[in-house]
Amino acid sequence: MVRHIGGAMRGSGADQISVLVRAMVESKVSKNVLRLFYALGYKLDHELLRVGFAFHFQRGASITVTVSSVNKMLKLHATDEVVPVTPGIQLVEVTALASSENYTEVAAAVSSFCEYLAPLLHLSKPGTSTGVVSTAAAAAASLMSDAAGVTT
Fold it and tell me: 0.70 exceeded by the pTM?
C-alpha cells in the first residue's frame, strides 16, 4: 500500500480546531511498485519500519489509535537489522477519516476522544513541542506522583 499524506489545512479554520486536518490518499500496489517509482525518477533514500499496535474505536466517528516505535533499516529491506530512531519513545497517532462535508464533526469527535488520552500523553499538533512521555509506565508514574515527585 502506498499512502500520500498532504499538507496541513491552513487558515482561520485550522486555528479554530484543536486537531490537524490533512488530505490522505491510499492506493493498493503490487509487489513491483519500487520499480515503478525508480522508473518515475524517484530515489530510495531510507526505509523506516514501524512496529506497534492499532486500536479502533467508534466514538461519533471511526477513530484509529496507533501506538508504534519507529526504526531505521540499516540495509535495504533488512527488517531484522533496525535501529530505533527515537529510543524509548512511542509515537501515538489518533486518526479518523472525514470528508469535506463532515470534517468539523469528525475533528470534534477526535478532540473529545483525545481528552481521554490527555492524562497519559502530551498531546500536540505536529510542529508544536509540548514535551514527551517516553513510555506508558513513565506516564503512569508521573500521574501517580505528587508535585514533589514522590510516588503515592
Answer: no
